[in-house]
Amino acid sequence: MENRNNVSEFILLGLTQDQDLQKACFGLFLVFYTTIVLGNLFIIVTIKSNSRLDSPMYFFLSCLSFVDICYSSVTAPKLIADFLVKKKAISIVGCMAQLFFIHLLGGTEIFLLTAMAYDRYVAICKPLQYTTIMSKNICSWMVMASWLGGFVHSILQTLLTVHLPFCGPNEIDHYFCDVHPLLKLACTDTYIVGIIVIVNSGMISLTSFVVLTASYIGILVMLRTHSSEGRLKALSTCASHITVVILYFGPCIFIYLRPSTTFSQDKCVALFYTIITPMLNPLIYTLRNEEVKNAMRKLWSKNVFISWK
Description:
By secondary structure, this protein is an all-alpha fold. Helix content is 75%, strand content 3%.
């Protein structure tokens, strides 16, 4: 790969060039990343340690929390470290590795959120068949299919990019290696590659969002025949998921469902699906879910009791 290029590394321009602002951002994003890791890890431990949370919804939620930890870890540590250095360099191999894992985990999260929406659809619209349709084996296969879908999406994206020649300049106006900024630096015609990227990334995001929207429309139609108490209970279980879907899919569609161009706003928009959403997921799912909150209280009380004992 390096033999075909005149550059051996890329320079990330990061979120800002202001030195004072970078120092403030270092502390802020360090808090964000710590919150992501601890919050999602606490969700996983709570679900795994409580037998009452042994249902498909919480199984998918624990998988989502694991993906969120990994997803943010691809970009956040590098972003935080770069706030302290003047030259924000990344090798060309490291750049392609970051590109691969960003799209592997991002694609997996998209498919996992779609699986979670299907789980809610079956639970509300087909309650008598729920345990049969959403058995443990089926749920495990759905998670494996999400990872496989993310891998296929990512490997195609990476192979398209890794074969491009880069002759210089080598400055990426972003805080991580993504496909659009890299296409902008390639010293060859990238029109066809850009079209494939739209089909690959943009259409996956848009199609999944349409499927999610259709599933929730079906749920709303079905809820018309339920009692007001049943409607409120069903909607409360879906509200958290809808919030996460909007926060995650909106920025993804904005970034990837367009021609291969870059805008100054892209970096701020990308923060939503790489930092903000993984950080908010534990809060969104726990604040609106009494079962998870009760399980967390019991786990916290148990740990405090053991530590005092």
